[in-house]
Design a protein that fits this description.
Blueprint lengths: L1 H11 L18 E5 L2 E4 L4 E4 L2 H4 L8 H11 L13 H13 L4 E7 L2 H18 L6 E5 L8 H6 L3 H4 L9 E4 L7 H18 L3 E6 L3 E2 L5 E2 L2 H13 L3 E5 L23 E4 L11 E6 H5 L21 H16 L2 H16 L8 E7 L2 E6 L8 H11 L2 E2 L6 E4 L7 H16 L3
Parallel strand pairs: 3-15, 5-6, 5-7, 7-10, 10-11
Antiparallel strand pairs: 1-2, 2-3, 4-12, 8-9, 11-12, 13-14, 14-16
Helix pairs in contact: 3-11, 4-11, 8-9, 12-14, 13-14
The structure holds pyridoxal-5'-phosphate (PLP).
């Protein structure tokens, strides 16, 4: 059954982030249905979704509360243009997200995927300065950062694997070193480097964009909140916007609702997507301040308004999934109950440190990572671990030499055992 579906697939579909020739030897896995943390294929095999289907799923697949909300919405309004028109799910969602973020954040702009949210924040920031009579065509970001793969988002990222080929096509950005680890000392060293860049170039820079506390696609690299605190202070001092790309870290992943909360700061822009709809539908938002909003607000003048849109901007079905997701956060005290789970993950993580081929382990909230000692990338150790996991019924998808855990929050302690014991055996059996 699986084989037949796979050959149909390979006849037509070009898969994301994939060397398609790999599928001559690596079988695709057709999924028939999913429930909770389990993915089910057509031959009766199940896999625990330990990567939350690329970091989007929060409360399990086919969640009854989200299902019900989307079903209800689909009979009323599936979509409507958001220019000149509006609808309740968009308004309710915007109001609730503004209420969830700190007081200076007052406005919300809709887009429909993470990269687009990043594009929106970059364009808004540049345009803000332009509307205020200043031209600042440069962006600053962290080394090892990832902000998506459209041209603008790719330009402010710093993962060679995705970026290098397209270098000649990119917009202008420079990188400042990310703290080397989670210590406060490395945060201070990196802040000194940041200050130096601002001393030389602040006048040219619209915004400093970063992934707060956890660099996801850059190998689950983590740093201390002190860096965020210091970066906010410097951006304020040098009058540069701070964009918090919380596309992966948002909605409880980092242990708090938003990662920037752990530094007690307020960014100028917050980009959200991934977990926003509980992993159901594509949607993203950019939240910003009244100050930014007001810089665009004037009698019609085609140069001053923010003339940016996407066809599915603020889709009602996606907004209703997001509203159901926020309901679950409220009614089930999710951030608090995740603490027990992340504590348990921390405990289980310790035994990995004793493995001879493990370089380091790290964790922030509901994200944990085990970094292997420098295997040659050509050995594709991650692929071996991926295969091992599938045999044991666990979907692990290492990033190079980094094996990570980012499960739906509904995972049980027993399922955490299965996932982490499988990863442990997979790493132990490498040679
Ligand atoms: C996934 C991700 C993006 C891009 O989102 P897409 O929806 O995949 O375009 C941007 N920034 C971060 C931090 C991400 O993890």
């Amino acid at each position: 059954m699986n084989d037949e579906i796979v050959s149909q697939d390979l006849q037509y579909i070009w898969h994301p982030c994939t060397q398609m020739k790999d599928h001559e030897t690596l079988p695709l896995i057709p999924i028939k249905s999913a429930k909770g943390v389990y993915l089910h294929d057509f031959e009766g095999n199940s896999y625990i979704d330990a990567v939350s289907s690329w970091w989007v799923n929060l409360f399990g697949h086919s969640n009854p509360k989200i299902n019900a909300r989307v079903k209800e919405q689909i009979d009323n309004l599936e979509h409507v243009i958001l220019a000149g028109f509006t609808h309740k799910p968009a308004i309710d969602l915007a109001a609730r997200l503004v209420a969830l973020t700190p007081e200076p954040i007052q406005k919300l702009f809709f887009a429909d995927n993470g990269s687009s949210a990043v594009e929106v924040s970059l364009k808004m920031s540049y345009h803000y300065f332009l509307n205020n009579g200043r031209k600042r065509p440069l962006f600053l970001s962290l080394t090892n950062s990832y902000h998506g793969e459209t041209i603008g988002a790719l330009s402010v990222g710093d993962v060679d694997l995705y970026k290098k080929i397209y270098e000649p096509l990119l917009i202008r950005s420079i990188q400042t070193p990310v703290p080397t680890d989670q210590s406060i000392e490395s945060a201070k060293v990196a802040l000194a480097a940041l200050e130096k860049i601002f001393e030389e170039k602040a006048e040219e820079i619209s915004a400093f964009i970063l992934e707060p506390l956890i660099q996801g696609a850059g190998g689950m690299h983590m740093y201390h909140p002190e860096y965020l605190r210091g970066a906010r202070e410097l951006t304020q001092h040098y009058d540069v916007h701070l964009i918090a790309d919380e596309i992966m870290t948002g909605f409880g992943r980092s242990g708090t609702m938003f990662a920037f909360e752990q530094a007690g700061i307020v960014p100028d822009f917050i980009c959200l997507s991934k977990g926003l709809t509980g992993g159901y539908l594509p949607l993203s938002v950019v939240l910003t301040t009244d100050d930014v909003y007001r810089a665009f607000y004037c009698d019609y003048n085609e140069h001053k308004a923010f003339l940016h849109s996407h066809s599915y901007t603020g889709n009602p079905l996606a907004c209703s999934a997001a509203l159901a997701t926020l309901d679950i956060f409220e009614s089930e005290n999710v951030i608090e109950s995740n603490r027990a789970k992340s504590g348990y993950i921390a405990q289980k993580l310790q035994i990995f440190e004793e493995l001879p081929n493990v370089k380091s382990v790290r964790q922030t909230g509901m994200v944990a990572a085990v970094e292997l000692k420098g295997y040659d990338p050509a050995l594709r150790m991650g692929l071996k671990i991926y295969r091992y996991g599938l045999e044991k019924g666990v979907l692990l998808r290492p990033l190079g030499n980094v094996v990570y855990f980012m499960p739906p929050y509904t995972i049980t302690f027993e399922e955490i055992d299965t996932v982490m014991d499988t990863a442990y055996e997979a790493i132990r059996s490498l040679d």
